Protein backbone atom coordinates (compact mmCIF):
# COMPACT_ATOMS: atom_id res chain seq x y z
CA UNK A 1 0.00 0.00 0.00
CA UNK A 2 2.86 2.35 0.86
CA UNK A 3 4.27 2.65 -2.64
CA UNK A 4 0.80 3.00 -4.21
CA UNK A 5 -0.12 5.80 -1.87
CA UNK A 6 3.25 7.48 -2.27
CA UNK A 7 2.90 7.42 -6.06
CA UNK A 8 -0.64 8.73 -5.80
CA UNK A 9 0.53 11.43 -3.38
CA UNK A 10 3.37 12.57 -5.61
CA UNK A 11 1.09 12.63 -8.66
CA UNK A 12 -0.97 15.29 -6.88
CA UNK A 13 1.73 17.92 -7.28
CA UNK A 14 2.01 18.06 -11.07
CA UNK A 15 -1.79 18.30 -11.22
CA UNK A 16 -1.84 21.11 -8.65
CA UNK A 17 0.92 22.87 -10.55
CA UNK A 18 -1.00 22.41 -13.80
CA UNK A 19 -4.12 23.87 -12.21
CA UNK A 20 -2.11 26.91 -11.11
CA UNK A 21 -0.70 27.34 -14.63
CA UNK A 22 -4.15 27.06 -16.23
CA UNK A 23 -5.71 29.60 -13.90
CA UNK A 24 -2.78 31.95 -14.29
CA UNK A 25 -2.83 31.75 -18.09
CA UNK A 26 -6.63 31.91 -18.33
CA UNK A 27 -6.56 35.43 -17.02
CA UNK A 28 -3.62 36.48 -19.17
CA UNK A 29 -4.74 35.22 -22.57
CA UNK A 30 -7.51 37.79 -22.82
CA UNK A 31 -6.95 40.48 -25.41
CA UNK A 32 -5.74 43.61 -23.70
CA UNK A 33 -5.13 42.92 -20.05
CA UNK A 34 -6.96 42.66 -16.78
CA UNK A 35 -6.45 46.28 -15.85
CA UNK A 36 -7.59 47.60 -19.24
CA UNK A 37 -10.64 45.35 -19.18
CA UNK A 38 -11.64 46.44 -15.71
CA UNK A 39 -10.98 50.11 -16.25
CA UNK A 40 -12.87 50.09 -19.54
CA UNK A 41 -15.79 48.49 -17.76
CA UNK A 42 -15.72 51.02 -14.96
CA UNK A 43 -15.42 54.33 -16.72
CA UNK A 44 -15.06 55.39 -20.32
CA UNK A 45 -11.70 56.86 -21.21
CA UNK A 46 -8.76 56.15 -18.97
CA UNK A 47 -5.43 57.89 -19.14
CA UNK A 48 -2.35 55.88 -20.03
CA UNK A 49 -0.81 56.97 -16.76
CA UNK A 50 -3.65 55.49 -14.72
CA UNK A 51 -3.34 52.23 -16.64
CA UNK A 52 0.40 52.06 -16.03
CA UNK A 53 -0.09 52.81 -12.38
CA UNK A 54 -2.64 50.02 -11.97
CA UNK A 55 -0.43 47.62 -13.91
CA UNK A 56 2.50 48.39 -11.65
CA UNK A 57 0.29 47.90 -8.60
CA UNK A 58 -0.51 44.32 -9.64
CA UNK A 59 2.95 43.63 -11.01
CA UNK A 60 1.61 43.32 -14.55
CA UNK A 61 4.54 45.31 -15.93
CA UNK A 62 6.83 42.40 -15.07
CA UNK A 63 7.59 39.58 -17.52
CA UNK A 64 4.99 36.79 -17.40
CA UNK A 65 7.25 34.12 -15.92
CA UNK A 66 8.24 36.49 -13.15
CA UNK A 67 4.60 37.29 -12.40
CA UNK A 68 3.85 33.59 -12.24
CA UNK A 69 6.79 32.88 -9.94
CA UNK A 70 5.82 35.73 -7.61
CA UNK A 71 2.20 34.60 -7.51
CA UNK A 72 3.05 30.94 -6.97
CA UNK A 73 5.56 31.76 -4.24
CA UNK A 74 2.83 33.78 -2.55
CA UNK A 75 0.35 30.91 -2.87
CA UNK A 76 2.82 28.48 -1.34
CA UNK A 77 3.07 30.80 1.67
CA UNK A 78 -0.77 31.08 1.63
CA UNK A 79 -0.51 34.72 0.59
CA UNK A 80 -2.96 35.25 -2.28
CA UNK A 81 -2.33 38.93 -2.79
CA UNK A 82 -4.91 41.70 -2.50
CA UNK A 83 -8.36 41.98 -4.00
CA UNK A 84 -8.55 44.26 -7.04
CA UNK A 85 -11.95 45.49 -5.92
CA UNK A 86 -11.72 46.10 -2.18
CA UNK A 87 -7.96 46.25 -1.84
CA UNK A 88 -8.17 43.97 1.21
CA UNK A 89 -5.84 40.96 1.51
CA UNK A 90 -7.57 37.97 -0.11
CA UNK A 91 -6.58 35.68 2.74
CA UNK A 92 -8.60 37.85 5.13
CA UNK A 93 -11.64 37.94 2.83
CA UNK A 94 -11.63 34.16 2.64
CA UNK A 95 -11.02 33.59 6.33
CA UNK A 96 -14.07 35.72 7.15
CA UNK A 97 -16.37 33.54 5.07
CA UNK A 98 -14.88 30.11 5.27
CA UNK A 99 -16.62 28.99 8.49
CA UNK A 100 -20.09 29.71 7.12
CA UNK A 101 -19.62 27.88 3.82
CA UNK A 102 -17.92 24.98 5.54
CA UNK A 103 -20.77 24.62 8.02
CA UNK A 104 -23.39 24.61 5.26
CA UNK A 105 -21.31 22.09 3.31
CA UNK A 106 -21.06 19.74 6.28
CA UNK A 107 -24.77 20.08 7.05
CA UNK A 108 -25.66 19.43 3.40
CA UNK A 109 -23.48 16.33 3.47
CA UNK A 110 -25.30 15.06 6.55
CA UNK A 111 -28.65 15.70 4.86
CA UNK A 112 -27.46 13.89 1.75
CA UNK A 113 -26.20 10.82 3.63
CA UNK A 114 -29.34 10.64 5.79
CA UNK A 115 -31.46 10.69 2.64
CA UNK A 116 -29.31 8.56 0.39
CA UNK A 117 -28.50 5.51 2.47
CA UNK A 118 -32.02 4.56 3.66
CA UNK A 119 -33.56 5.39 0.28
CA UNK A 120 -30.90 3.51 -1.66
CA UNK A 121 -31.18 0.45 0.57
CA UNK A 122 -34.99 0.38 0.34
CA UNK A 123 -34.88 0.79 -3.44
CA UNK A 124 -32.42 -2.09 -3.74
CA UNK A 125 -34.46 -4.37 -1.49
CA UNK A 126 -37.68 -3.61 -3.35
CA UNK A 127 -36.05 -3.67 -6.78
CA UNK A 128 -38.48 -3.08 -9.68
CA UNK A 129 -41.47 -2.42 -7.46
CA UNK A 130 -43.25 0.93 -7.20
CA UNK A 131 -41.07 1.78 -4.20
CA UNK A 132 -37.96 1.42 -6.35
CA UNK A 133 -39.49 3.55 -9.10
CA UNK A 134 -40.56 6.21 -6.62
CA UNK A 135 -37.05 6.42 -5.17
CA UNK A 136 -35.50 6.59 -8.62
CA UNK A 137 -37.85 9.35 -9.73
CA UNK A 138 -37.17 11.19 -6.48
CA UNK A 139 -33.44 11.04 -7.14
CA UNK A 140 -33.62 11.97 -10.82
CA UNK A 141 -35.82 14.89 -9.80
CA UNK A 142 -33.13 15.87 -7.31
CA UNK A 143 -30.63 16.16 -10.12
CA UNK A 144 -33.08 18.14 -12.23
CA UNK A 145 -34.21 20.66 -9.61
CA UNK A 146 -31.91 23.67 -9.36
CA UNK A 147 -30.95 24.03 -5.68
CA UNK A 148 -31.47 27.77 -5.85
CA UNK A 149 -35.06 27.29 -6.96
CA UNK A 150 -35.63 24.73 -4.21
CA UNK A 151 -34.34 27.36 -1.80
CA UNK A 152 -36.84 29.88 -3.18
CA UNK A 153 -39.65 27.32 -2.83
CA UNK A 154 -38.66 26.68 0.80
CA UNK A 155 -38.84 30.39 1.53
CA UNK A 156 -42.21 30.61 -0.22
CA UNK A 157 -43.67 27.68 1.69
CA UNK A 158 -42.36 28.88 5.05
CA UNK A 159 -43.83 32.27 4.39
CA UNK A 160 -47.22 31.11 3.11
CA UNK A 161 -47.78 28.17 5.46
CA UNK A 162 -46.06 29.31 8.65
CA UNK A 163 -45.98 33.06 8.06
CA UNK A 164 -42.33 32.87 9.06
CA UNK A 165 -39.06 33.68 7.35
CA UNK A 166 -35.70 32.19 8.27
CA UNK A 167 -33.35 34.83 9.72
CA UNK A 168 -31.48 36.65 6.97
CA UNK A 169 -28.63 37.88 9.16
CA UNK A 170 -25.90 35.42 9.95
CA UNK A 171 -25.38 34.39 13.57
CA UNK A 172 -22.27 32.29 14.25
CA UNK A 173 -22.91 28.91 15.81
CA UNK A 174 -21.03 29.69 19.02
CA UNK A 175 -23.06 32.88 19.57
CA UNK A 176 -26.51 31.34 19.25
CA UNK A 177 -26.67 27.75 17.98
CA UNK A 178 -30.45 27.73 17.62
CA UNK A 179 -30.59 30.94 15.60
CA UNK A 180 -27.69 29.70 13.50
CA UNK A 181 -29.39 26.40 12.75
CA UNK A 182 -32.71 28.07 11.91
CA UNK A 183 -30.92 30.02 9.21
CA UNK A 184 -28.59 27.42 7.77
CA UNK A 185 -30.81 24.34 7.76
CA UNK A 186 -32.71 25.55 4.66
CA UNK A 187 -29.76 26.02 2.33
CA UNK A 188 -28.37 22.74 3.67
CA UNK A 189 -31.63 20.97 2.76
CA UNK A 190 -31.76 22.59 -0.68
CA UNK A 191 -28.18 21.64 -1.52
CA UNK A 192 -28.35 18.31 0.29
CA UNK A 193 -31.32 17.03 -1.70
CA UNK A 194 -29.54 17.53 -4.99
CA UNK A 195 -26.37 16.11 -3.53
CA UNK A 196 -28.21 13.01 -2.23
CA UNK A 197 -29.38 12.03 -5.73
CA UNK A 198 -26.07 10.63 -6.93
CA UNK A 199 -25.39 8.96 -3.58
CA UNK A 200 -28.85 7.35 -3.55
CA UNK A 201 -28.29 5.80 -6.97
CA UNK A 202 -24.85 4.65 -5.91
CA UNK A 203 -26.21 3.07 -2.71
CA UNK A 204 -28.92 1.30 -4.69
CA UNK A 205 -26.58 -0.16 -7.28
CA UNK A 206 -23.90 -1.10 -4.75
CA UNK A 207 -26.51 -2.83 -2.58
CA UNK A 208 -27.93 -4.69 -5.57
CA UNK A 209 -24.48 -5.97 -6.37
CA UNK A 210 -23.61 -6.97 -2.81
CA UNK A 211 -26.97 -8.68 -2.20
CA UNK A 212 -26.09 -11.20 -4.91
CA UNK A 213 -22.86 -12.25 -3.18
CA UNK A 214 -22.43 -15.71 -1.67
CA UNK A 215 -21.75 -14.44 1.83
CA UNK A 216 -25.19 -12.84 1.96
CA UNK A 217 -26.78 -16.17 1.08
CA UNK A 218 -24.59 -17.82 3.75
CA UNK A 219 -25.64 -15.25 6.33
CA UNK A 220 -29.30 -15.82 5.48
CA UNK A 221 -28.85 -19.60 5.46
CA UNK A 222 -27.43 -19.63 8.93
CA UNK A 223 -30.60 -17.93 10.07
CA UNK A 224 -29.37 -14.40 10.64
CA UNK A 225 -32.22 -11.91 10.89
CA UNK A 226 -32.68 -9.57 7.93
CA UNK A 227 -31.65 -6.50 9.90
CA UNK A 228 -28.27 -7.97 10.77
CA UNK A 229 -27.71 -9.34 7.28
CA UNK A 230 -28.25 -5.84 5.94
CA UNK A 231 -26.29 -3.86 8.49
CA UNK A 232 -23.38 -6.20 9.22
CA UNK A 233 -22.88 -7.85 5.86
CA UNK A 234 -24.51 -5.98 3.01
CA UNK A 235 -24.27 -2.30 3.91
CA UNK A 236 -20.78 -2.63 5.29
CA UNK A 237 -19.57 -3.74 1.89
CA UNK A 238 -21.80 -1.47 -0.16
CA UNK A 239 -20.85 1.66 1.75
CA UNK A 240 -17.38 2.05 0.26
CA UNK A 241 -18.31 3.29 -3.22
CA UNK A 242 -21.02 5.42 -1.63
CA UNK A 243 -18.47 7.12 0.62
CA UNK A 244 -16.29 7.82 -2.41
CA UNK A 245 -19.17 9.48 -4.21
CA UNK A 246 -20.04 11.48 -1.11
CA UNK A 247 -16.42 12.56 -0.75
CA UNK A 248 -16.05 13.66 -4.35
CA UNK A 249 -19.36 15.49 -4.25
CA UNK A 250 -18.25 17.20 -1.06
CA UNK A 251 -15.21 18.49 -2.89
CA UNK A 252 -17.47 19.88 -5.60
CA UNK A 253 -20.00 21.31 -3.13
CA UNK A 254 -18.60 24.80 -3.61
CA UNK A 255 -20.33 24.73 -7.01
CA UNK A 256 -23.72 24.18 -5.39
CA UNK A 257 -23.10 26.83 -2.78
CA UNK A 258 -22.32 29.50 -5.35
CA UNK A 259 -25.99 29.82 -6.29
CA UNK A 260 -27.67 28.82 -3.05
CA UNK A 261 -25.85 31.36 -0.91
CA UNK A 262 -27.27 34.06 -3.14
CA UNK A 263 -30.86 32.95 -2.42
CA UNK A 264 -30.44 32.89 1.34
CA UNK A 265 -28.26 35.96 1.41
CA UNK A 266 -25.41 34.07 3.06
CA UNK A 267 -22.10 35.86 2.97
CA UNK A 268 -19.99 32.79 2.26
CA UNK A 269 -17.32 31.79 -0.22
CA UNK A 270 -19.92 31.19 -2.95
CA UNK A 271 -21.26 34.71 -2.69
CA UNK A 272 -17.71 36.05 -2.59
CA UNK A 273 -16.97 34.24 -5.83
CA UNK A 274 -20.09 35.59 -7.54
CA UNK A 275 -19.19 39.10 -6.42
CA UNK A 276 -15.66 38.60 -7.67
CA UNK A 277 -16.97 37.60 -11.10
CA UNK A 278 -19.47 40.47 -11.17
CA UNK A 279 -16.74 42.99 -10.26
CA UNK A 280 -14.18 41.31 -12.49
CA UNK A 281 -11.88 41.03 -9.51
CA UNK A 282 -9.35 38.79 -11.24
CA UNK A 283 -6.93 38.31 -8.37
CA UNK A 284 -9.78 37.12 -6.18
CA UNK A 285 -11.21 34.84 -8.91
CA UNK A 286 -7.74 33.39 -9.41
CA UNK A 287 -7.33 32.65 -5.70
CA UNK A 288 -10.79 31.15 -5.22
CA UNK A 289 -10.64 28.91 -8.29
CA UNK A 290 -7.23 27.67 -7.18
CA UNK A 291 -8.51 26.91 -3.69
CA UNK A 292 -11.57 25.06 -4.96
CA UNK A 293 -9.59 22.99 -7.45
CA UNK A 294 -6.83 22.33 -4.92
CA UNK A 295 -9.42 21.22 -2.39
CA UNK A 296 -10.88 18.82 -4.95
CA UNK A 297 -7.48 17.31 -5.72
CA UNK A 298 -6.67 16.83 -2.04
CA UNK A 299 -10.07 15.31 -1.22
CA UNK A 300 -9.73 13.02 -4.20
CA UNK A 301 -6.41 11.80 -2.88
CA UNK A 302 -7.84 11.37 0.61
CA UNK A 303 -10.67 9.28 -0.83
CA UNK A 304 -8.25 7.04 -2.72
CA UNK A 305 -6.18 6.64 0.42
CA UNK A 306 -9.24 5.76 2.48
CA UNK A 307 -10.37 3.30 -0.15
CA UNK A 308 -6.99 1.58 -0.15
CA UNK A 309 -6.96 1.50 3.62
CA UNK A 310 -10.46 0.06 3.96
CA UNK A 311 -10.43 -2.37 1.06
CA UNK A 312 -7.64 -4.94 1.29
CA UNK A 313 -8.18 -5.91 -2.34
CA UNK A 314 -6.80 -2.56 -3.47
CA UNK A 315 -4.19 -2.27 -0.76
CA UNK A 316 -1.49 -4.37 -2.34
CA UNK A 317 -1.85 -3.30 -5.92
CA UNK B 1 -22.61 -0.83 -67.11
CA UNK B 2 -25.72 -2.90 -67.22
CA UNK B 3 -24.35 -5.24 -64.57
CA UNK B 4 -24.36 -2.62 -61.88
CA UNK B 5 -27.81 -1.37 -60.96
CA UNK B 6 -28.11 2.44 -60.96
CA UNK B 7 -27.19 3.96 -57.60
CA UNK B 8 -30.74 5.18 -57.00
CA UNK B 9 -32.02 1.64 -57.11
CA UNK B 10 -29.60 0.54 -54.43
CA UNK B 11 -30.73 3.33 -52.16
CA UNK B 12 -34.36 2.56 -52.93
CA UNK B 13 -33.77 -1.06 -52.07
CA UNK B 14 -32.00 -0.33 -48.82
CA UNK B 15 -33.96 2.64 -47.60
CA UNK B 16 -37.13 0.86 -46.45
CA UNK B 17 -35.22 -1.74 -44.52
CA UNK B 18 -33.14 0.91 -42.81
CA UNK B 19 -36.22 2.91 -42.03
CA UNK B 20 -38.12 -0.03 -40.64
CA UNK B 21 -35.12 -0.97 -38.52
CA UNK B 22 -35.20 2.52 -37.06
CA UNK B 23 -38.94 2.37 -36.50
CA UNK B 24 -38.52 -0.96 -34.82
CA UNK B 25 -35.76 0.34 -32.57
CA UNK B 26 -37.82 3.38 -31.61
CA UNK B 27 -40.89 1.23 -30.94
CA UNK B 28 -38.84 -1.14 -28.85
CA UNK B 29 -37.37 1.75 -26.86
CA UNK B 30 -40.84 3.15 -26.15
CA UNK B 31 -42.15 -0.19 -24.95
CA UNK B 32 -39.20 -1.26 -22.80
CA UNK B 33 -38.10 2.14 -21.50
CA UNK B 34 -41.35 3.92 -20.89
CA UNK B 35 -39.74 6.53 -18.60
CA UNK B 36 -37.27 7.40 -21.35
CA UNK B 37 -40.08 7.65 -23.87
CA UNK B 38 -41.92 10.07 -21.57
CA UNK B 39 -38.76 12.15 -21.41
CA UNK B 40 -38.49 12.12 -25.19
CA UNK B 41 -42.11 13.25 -25.59
CA UNK B 42 -41.57 16.16 -23.17
CA UNK B 43 -38.44 17.16 -25.09
CA UNK B 44 -40.27 17.04 -28.43
CA UNK B 45 -43.07 19.18 -26.96
CA UNK B 46 -40.49 21.67 -25.69
CA UNK B 47 -38.84 21.81 -29.09
CA UNK B 48 -42.21 22.43 -30.71
CA UNK B 49 -42.99 25.22 -28.23
CA UNK B 50 -39.60 26.82 -28.83
CA UNK B 51 -39.97 26.66 -32.62
CA UNK B 52 -43.55 27.93 -32.62
CA UNK B 53 -43.06 30.55 -29.90
CA UNK B 54 -44.43 33.37 -32.10
CA UNK B 55 -47.61 31.41 -32.75
CA UNK B 56 -48.24 30.07 -29.26
CA UNK B 57 -47.24 32.96 -27.02
CA UNK B 58 -50.27 35.09 -26.17
CA UNK B 59 -48.20 38.29 -25.76
CA UNK B 60 -44.92 39.80 -26.87
CA UNK B 61 -42.44 38.65 -24.19
CA UNK B 62 -40.86 42.10 -24.12
CA UNK B 63 -44.10 44.12 -24.08
CA UNK B 64 -44.12 46.20 -20.92
CA UNK B 65 -47.56 46.99 -19.48
CA UNK B 66 -47.39 49.20 -16.42
CA UNK B 67 -51.14 48.98 -16.00
CA UNK B 68 -50.85 45.23 -15.29
CA UNK B 69 -47.78 45.05 -13.06
CA UNK B 70 -47.59 41.95 -10.85
CA UNK B 71 -51.11 40.85 -11.67
CA UNK B 72 -51.92 37.32 -10.41
CA UNK B 73 -52.86 34.46 -12.75
CA UNK B 74 -56.13 35.21 -14.52
CA UNK B 75 -57.95 34.47 -17.78
CA UNK B 76 -55.99 37.29 -19.41
CA UNK B 77 -52.57 36.29 -18.06
CA UNK B 78 -52.62 32.57 -17.31
CA UNK B 79 -49.62 32.60 -15.01
CA UNK B 80 -49.64 36.28 -14.12
CA UNK B 81 -47.28 39.13 -14.97
CA UNK B 82 -43.91 40.28 -13.66
CA UNK B 83 -42.71 43.58 -12.20
CA UNK B 84 -42.82 45.24 -15.61
CA UNK B 85 -46.27 43.86 -16.41
CA UNK B 86 -44.79 41.43 -18.91
CA UNK B 87 -46.78 38.23 -19.44
CA UNK B 88 -44.99 35.42 -17.56
CA UNK B 89 -46.38 32.65 -19.81
CA UNK B 90 -45.04 34.34 -22.94
CA UNK B 91 -41.68 34.80 -21.27
CA UNK B 92 -41.68 31.12 -20.26
CA UNK B 93 -42.40 30.14 -23.87
CA UNK B 94 -39.67 32.35 -25.29
CA UNK B 95 -37.39 31.29 -22.46
CA UNK B 96 -37.46 27.73 -23.80
CA UNK B 97 -35.67 29.10 -26.88
CA UNK B 98 -32.83 30.47 -24.81
CA UNK B 99 -32.58 27.30 -22.75
CA UNK B 100 -32.57 24.99 -25.77
CA UNK B 101 -30.24 27.21 -27.80
CA UNK B 102 -27.64 27.37 -25.05
CA UNK B 103 -28.30 23.76 -24.02
CA UNK B 104 -27.93 22.25 -27.47
CA UNK B 105 -25.17 24.64 -28.51
CA UNK B 106 -22.97 23.97 -25.51
CA UNK B 107 -23.58 20.24 -25.20
CA UNK B 108 -23.16 19.45 -28.90
CA UNK B 109 -19.97 21.50 -29.04
CA UNK B 110 -18.66 20.12 -25.75
CA UNK B 111 -19.48 16.49 -26.48
CA UNK B 112 -18.12 16.67 -30.04
CA UNK B 113 -14.86 18.42 -29.23
CA UNK B 114 -14.42 16.04 -26.31
CA UNK B 115 -15.13 13.06 -28.55
CA UNK B 116 -12.52 14.17 -31.09
CA UNK B 117 -9.97 14.67 -28.32
CA UNK B 118 -10.88 11.37 -26.69
CA UNK B 119 -10.70 9.38 -29.91
CA UNK B 120 -7.49 11.13 -30.95
CA UNK B 121 -5.97 10.42 -27.56
CA UNK B 122 -6.89 6.74 -27.78
CA UNK B 123 -5.76 6.47 -31.42
CA UNK B 124 -2.32 7.98 -31.02
CA UNK B 125 -1.75 6.44 -27.59
CA UNK B 126 1.67 6.62 -25.97
CA UNK B 127 2.97 10.00 -25.07
CA UNK B 128 0.19 12.01 -26.72
CA UNK B 129 -2.36 10.06 -24.72
CA UNK B 130 -0.44 10.50 -21.50
CA UNK B 131 -0.07 14.26 -21.86
CA UNK B 132 -3.66 14.74 -22.95
CA UNK B 133 -4.85 12.73 -19.96
CA UNK B 134 -2.82 14.90 -17.59
CA UNK B 135 -4.31 18.06 -19.12
CA UNK B 136 -7.80 16.56 -18.80
CA UNK B 137 -7.10 15.73 -15.16
CA UNK B 138 -6.26 19.34 -14.55
CA UNK B 139 -9.48 20.58 -16.13
CA UNK B 140 -11.52 17.94 -14.30
CA UNK B 141 -10.51 19.40 -10.96
CA UNK B 142 -12.64 22.49 -11.56
CA UNK B 143 -16.33 22.19 -10.66
CA UNK B 144 -18.44 22.86 -13.79
CA UNK B 145 -20.01 26.07 -12.59
CA UNK B 146 -16.80 27.50 -11.14
CA UNK B 147 -14.93 27.16 -14.44
CA UNK B 148 -17.95 28.44 -16.37
CA UNK B 149 -18.18 31.50 -14.10
CA UNK B 150 -14.47 32.18 -14.40
CA UNK B 151 -14.79 32.02 -18.20
CA UNK B 152 -17.79 34.35 -18.16
CA UNK B 153 -15.69 36.80 -16.15
CA UNK B 154 -13.11 36.75 -18.92
CA UNK B 155 -15.26 36.44 -22.04
CA UNK B 156 -18.19 38.63 -21.02
CA UNK B 157 -21.77 37.45 -21.05
CA UNK B 158 -23.28 37.51 -24.51
CA UNK B 159 -25.12 34.32 -25.56
CA UNK B 160 -22.26 32.97 -27.76
CA UNK B 161 -19.80 33.59 -24.93
CA UNK B 162 -22.17 31.88 -22.52
CA UNK B 163 -22.23 28.84 -24.79
CA UNK B 164 -18.42 28.89 -24.89
CA UNK B 165 -18.18 29.17 -21.12
CA UNK B 166 -20.44 26.12 -20.66
CA UNK B 167 -18.74 24.16 -23.45
CA UNK B 168 -15.20 24.30 -22.08
CA UNK B 169 -15.80 22.47 -18.77
CA UNK B 170 -17.74 19.77 -20.65
CA UNK B 171 -14.93 18.90 -23.06
CA UNK B 172 -12.71 16.94 -20.63
CA UNK B 173 -15.72 15.09 -19.20
CA UNK B 174 -16.73 13.94 -22.65
CA UNK B 175 -13.14 13.13 -23.65
CA UNK B 176 -12.76 10.90 -20.60
CA UNK B 177 -15.79 8.77 -21.43
CA UNK B 178 -15.23 8.60 -25.18
CA UNK B 179 -11.55 7.75 -24.79
CA UNK B 180 -12.30 4.61 -22.82
CA UNK B 181 -14.67 3.37 -25.55
CA UNK B 182 -12.28 4.40 -28.30
CA UNK B 183 -9.49 2.34 -26.73
CA UNK B 184 -11.35 -0.85 -27.62
CA UNK B 185 -12.37 0.46 -31.05
CA UNK B 186 -8.70 1.08 -31.84
CA UNK B 187 -8.01 -2.65 -31.56
CA UNK B 188 -10.67 -3.52 -34.16
CA UNK B 189 -9.50 -5.12 -37.43
CA UNK B 190 -11.14 -2.42 -39.57
CA UNK B 191 -8.91 0.21 -38.00
CA UNK B 192 -5.87 -1.91 -38.84
CA UNK B 193 -7.27 -2.34 -42.33
CA UNK B 194 -7.70 1.41 -42.74
CA UNK B 195 -4.16 1.96 -41.56
CA UNK B 196 -2.88 -0.71 -43.94
CA UNK B 197 -4.78 0.96 -46.77
CA UNK B 198 -2.65 4.01 -46.09
CA UNK B 199 -5.38 6.39 -44.91
CA UNK B 200 -4.27 9.45 -42.98
CA UNK B 201 -4.74 9.88 -39.26
CA UNK B 202 -7.54 12.41 -39.67
CA UNK B 203 -9.49 10.11 -41.98
CA UNK B 204 -9.14 7.12 -39.70
CA UNK B 205 -10.19 9.13 -36.65
CA UNK B 206 -13.10 10.91 -38.29
CA UNK B 207 -14.44 8.24 -40.65
CA UNK B 208 -13.59 4.97 -38.96
CA UNK B 209 -13.36 5.53 -35.23
CA UNK B 210 -15.80 8.36 -34.46
CA UNK B 211 -18.87 6.59 -35.93
CA UNK B 212 -18.12 3.61 -33.72
CA UNK B 213 -18.21 5.55 -30.48
CA UNK B 214 -21.68 6.88 -31.32
CA UNK B 215 -23.37 5.09 -28.39
CA UNK B 216 -21.32 6.68 -25.59
CA UNK B 217 -21.44 9.95 -27.54
CA UNK B 218 -25.24 10.00 -27.53
CA UNK B 219 -25.33 9.06 -23.87
CA UNK B 220 -22.96 11.82 -22.87
CA UNK B 221 -24.76 14.30 -25.13
CA UNK B 222 -28.15 13.80 -23.46
CA UNK B 223 -26.52 13.94 -20.03
CA UNK B 224 -24.83 17.23 -20.97
CA UNK B 225 -28.05 18.73 -22.32
CA UNK B 226 -29.69 18.66 -18.91
CA UNK B 227 -26.55 19.97 -17.24
CA UNK B 228 -26.09 22.76 -19.76
CA UNK B 229 -29.67 23.96 -19.29
CA UNK B 230 -29.20 23.88 -15.53
CA UNK B 231 -25.91 25.73 -15.80
CA UNK B 232 -27.37 28.43 -18.05
CA UNK B 233 -30.23 28.89 -15.60
CA UNK B 234 -27.80 29.14 -12.68
CA UNK B 235 -25.57 31.69 -14.41
CA UNK B 236 -28.56 33.75 -15.52
CA UNK B 237 -30.00 33.58 -12.01
CA UNK B 238 -26.75 35.02 -10.69
CA UNK B 239 -27.02 37.84 -13.21
CA UNK B 240 -23.89 36.58 -14.97
CA UNK B 241 -25.57 34.77 -17.85
CA UNK B 242 -28.32 35.89 -20.21
CA UNK B 243 -29.09 39.59 -19.69
CA UNK B 244 -32.40 41.46 -19.57
CA UNK B 245 -34.63 41.89 -21.49
CA UNK B 246 -34.04 38.49 -23.17
CA UNK B 247 -36.44 35.90 -21.76
CA UNK B 248 -34.59 33.16 -19.86
CA UNK B 249 -35.90 30.97 -17.06
CA UNK B 250 -33.01 31.52 -14.68
CA UNK B 251 -33.18 35.26 -15.20
CA UNK B 252 -36.93 35.23 -14.43
CA UNK B 253 -36.14 33.79 -11.01
CA UNK B 254 -33.66 36.54 -10.29
CA UNK B 255 -35.11 39.00 -7.85
CA UNK B 256 -38.07 36.72 -7.38
CA UNK B 257 -36.70 35.26 -4.18
CA UNK B 258 -37.75 36.95 -1.00
CA UNK B 259 -39.06 40.27 -2.19
CA UNK B 260 -41.82 38.78 -4.32
CA UNK B 261 -42.43 35.64 -2.31
CA UNK B 262 -45.43 37.17 -0.65
CA UNK B 263 -46.84 39.40 -3.36
CA UNK B 264 -46.17 37.41 -6.54
CA UNK B 265 -45.32 33.75 -5.88
CA UNK B 266 -46.19 32.81 -9.49
CA UNK B 267 -43.07 34.64 -10.58
CA UNK B 268 -40.94 32.32 -8.49
CA UNK B 269 -42.78 29.04 -9.07
CA UNK B 270 -43.27 28.67 -12.82
CA UNK B 271 -39.80 29.38 -14.25
CA UNK B 272 -38.35 26.92 -11.74
CA UNK B 273 -40.88 24.30 -12.76
CA UNK B 274 -39.92 24.86 -16.40
CA UNK B 275 -36.20 24.36 -15.66
CA UNK B 276 -36.84 21.25 -13.56
CA UNK B 277 -39.17 19.72 -16.14
CA UNK B 278 -36.71 20.30 -18.98
CA UNK B 279 -33.72 18.90 -17.11
CA UNK B 280 -35.83 16.04 -15.74
CA UNK B 281 -36.91 15.07 -19.26
CA UNK B 282 -33.35 15.07 -20.57
CA UNK B 283 -32.16 13.05 -17.57
CA UNK B 284 -34.93 10.47 -18.03
CA UNK B 285 -34.09 10.11 -21.70
CA UNK B 286 -30.36 10.00 -20.98
CA UNK B 287 -30.71 7.29 -18.35
CA UNK B 288 -32.89 5.11 -20.56
CA UNK B 289 -30.63 5.67 -23.53
CA UNK B 290 -27.65 4.58 -21.45
CA UNK B 291 -29.44 1.43 -20.33
CA UNK B 292 -30.54 0.65 -23.88
CA UNK B 293 -27.29 1.41 -25.69
CA UNK B 294 -24.67 0.32 -23.24
CA UNK B 295 -25.56 -2.57 -20.96
CA UNK B 296 -22.13 -2.37 -19.34
CA UNK B 297 -22.94 1.00 -17.84
CA UNK B 298 -26.29 -0.15 -16.52
CA UNK B 299 -25.87 0.09 -12.82
CA UNK B 300 -26.67 3.34 -11.15
Number of strands of chain B: 0
Greatest interface and its participating residue counts: A-B, 57 and 48 residues
Summing up helix and strand content along with how strands pair, one would put the structural category of chain A as mainly alpha
Q: What structural class do the secondary elements of chain B suggest?
A: mainly alpha
Radius of gyration of chain B: 23 Å
Beta-strand fraction estimate of chain A: under 5%
Mean pLDDT of chain B: 84
* Main beta sheet of chain B: none
Shape of chain B: elongated
List the helices and strands of chain B in order.
HHHHHHHHHHHH
| Alpha-carbon Rg of chain A, integer | 24 Å
Q: Which band does the percent of strand residues of chain B land in?
A: under 5%
- Which shape of chain A, going by the Cα principal axes? globular
Q: How many angstroms does the end-to-end distance of chain A come to?
A: 7 Å
Order of helices and strands of chain A: HHHHHHHHHHHHHH
Low-confidence stretches of chain B: none
Q: What is the number of helices of chain B?
A: 12
Largest sheet of chain A: none
Query: Helical residue percent of chain A?
Result: over 70%
